[in-house]
Amino acid sequence: MIDFSLTEEQQALIDTARRFAKERIIPIAAACDHESRFPMDVFKEAWEIGLVNPTCPVEYGGAGMGELDNTLIIEELAYGCSGITTSMLANTLALTPVKLAGNEEQKRKYLGMLTSEPVMASYATSEPDAGSDVAGLKTRYTRHGDDYVLNGQKCWITNASYAQFYVIFATENPELRHKGIAAFIVDRDTPGLRVGKKEDKLGQRASDTAQIFLEDVKVPKANLLAPAGSGFKVAMETFNQTRPDIGAVATGLMRRCLEESVAYAKERKAFGQPIANHQLVQWMLAEMAIRVEATRLLTHKGAWSLDRGAREPVVSSISKAYGADSAMQTAIDAVQVFGGNGYVKEYPVEKLMRDAKVLQIYEGTSQIQRIVIARQLLA
Ligand SMILES: Cc1cc2nc3c(=O)[nH]c(=O)nc-3n(C[C@H](O)[C@H](O)[C@H](O)COP(=O)(O)OP(=O)(O)OC[C@H]3O[C@@H](n4cnc5c(N)ncnc54)[C@H](O)[C@@H]3O)c2cc1C
């Protein structure tokens, strides 16, 4: 039976996240964007009230929430600021491969680390010459006795400047492509690991994005998360599980666009009446509402499928692709509703437009989602 109602617990979760976004995120979001600063104090507070790492299993100190509950939280946080939300979500991106592929010892140590103190973790597949083409990554690992040694470079890594550990994908031989890729958990203080320059981004400027350099980084055997042959699968399954999260970020961002636009359209007058009376403005508002509703439903379906243990990568990809593209169009329309005021930093919508763009890029571009979907259709 299909049921769209929320439980009392889910409504309480939404209320908590909504209050947190209103009281702790919205008041500082513009300044964090302007200064390109991640608010660690806000992250710590969010962690304390259970809004960070919600899907971490109970056995390792987490709340053990399902993906649907996770998307409810994310939509509310992203309404406040999708940049700050992305940094909180990067922990989920890093803990998911540990949850999927980690042995008991690894889960106790690294999931336990995330739940016992407000620390960050990063997930690193991307490199200067391998973003969409994950199987083309070149960071190498070699065996040295019982240890592994990593050499290479990662880029665009969310939270790299702050992370306590990194899930790093490396290959034994780039010519093997996906078959050669393994995954490792690398502690921040490992000699040879250096965090490089922080990116000066167009949008989501409150989230930290930086490079990682690996020079003869010795990783103990105990930190091999997935051997060659299964590392690539772990990377892909991680994306499958986290793509609805991006749909939820898109929903929150669009809801903010819609609410800001409705309020402005009722206030702003042109031709002697509120612009809300003009049908072409109404059309933009209605289109925004359609996209919010459709993206939320797709996201919830993707999350619900994951919670049922059903493997439906197409649904995950559709929620991500439709959500990201809808968020971009909705943010452009919000700037349009605001006219000249939409183009300046005094009003909130120019930030929403800059923030929306990366949703079409990270965790698989909009083109890559189409490839995943088409491949399934044609299989
Ligand atoms: C703010 C931010 C945060 C990020 N966080 C992380 C992170 O935490 N961890 C991580 O590992 N990575 C992260 N990334 C990297 C992100 O996943 C990559 O940027 C993304 O996968 C695209 O890779 P690329 O930039 O190399 O673009 P490219 O792969 O070079 O693509 C360039 C263009 O070509 C298109 N294209 C490429 N191949 C095809 C094809 N076969 N068919 C059609 N079109 C194609 C793409 O869609 C895109 O439009 C982040 C990026 C950003 C901007």
TrEMBL record:
<keyword id="KW-0560">Oxidoreductase</keyword>
<dbReference type="InterPro" id="IPR009100">
    <property type="entry name" value="AcylCoA_DH/oxidase_NM_dom_sf"/>
</dbReference>
<dbReference type="Pfam" id="PF02771">
    <property type="entry name" value="Acyl-CoA_dh_N"/>
</dbReference>
<dbReference type="InterPro" id="IPR046373">
    <property type="entry name" value="Acyl-CoA_Oxase/DH_mid-dom_sf"/>
</dbReference>
<dbReference type="InterPro" id="IPR037069">
    <property type="entry name" value="AcylCoA_DH/ox_N_sf"/>
</dbReference>
<dbReference type="InterPro" id="IPR009075">
    <property type="entry name" value="AcylCo_DH/oxidase_C"/>
</dbReference>
<keyword id="KW-0274">FAD</keyword>
<comment type="similarity">
    <text>Belongs to the acyl-CoA dehydrogenase family.</text>
</comment>
<feature type="domain" description="Acyl-CoA oxidase/dehydrogenase middle">
    <location>
        <begin position="123"/>
        <end position="217"/>
    </location>
</feature>
<dbReference type="InterPro" id="IPR006089">
    <property type="entry name" value="Acyl-CoA_DH_CS"/>
</dbReference>
<feature type="domain" description="Acyl-CoA dehydrogenase/oxidase N-terminal">
    <location>
        <begin position="7"/>
        <end position="116"/>
    </location>
</feature>
<protein>
    <submittedName>
        <fullName>Acyl-CoA dehydrogenase</fullName>
    </submittedName>
</protein>
<dbReference type="InterPro" id="IPR036250">
    <property type="entry name" value="AcylCo_DH-like_C"/>
</dbReference>
<dbReference type="Pfam" id="PF02770">
    <property type="entry name" value="Acyl-CoA_dh_M"/>
</dbReference>
<dbReference type="Pfam" id="PF00441">
    <property type="entry name" value="Acyl-CoA_dh_1"/>
</dbReference>
<feature type="domain" description="Acyl-CoA dehydrogenase/oxidase C-terminal">
    <location>
        <begin position="229"/>
        <end position="378"/>
    </location>
</feature>
<dbReference type="InterPro" id="IPR006091">
    <property type="entry name" value="Acyl-CoA_Oxase/DH_mid-dom"/>
</dbReference>
<dbReference type="GO" id="GO:0003995">
    <property type="term" value="F:acyl-CoA dehydrogenase activity"/>
</dbReference>
<keyword id="KW-0285">Flavoprotein</keyword>
<dbReference type="InterPro" id="IPR013786">
    <property type="entry name" value="AcylCoA_DH/ox_N"/>
</dbReference>
<dbReference type="GO" id="GO:0050660">
    <property type="term" value="F:flavin adenine dinucleotide binding"/>
</dbReference>
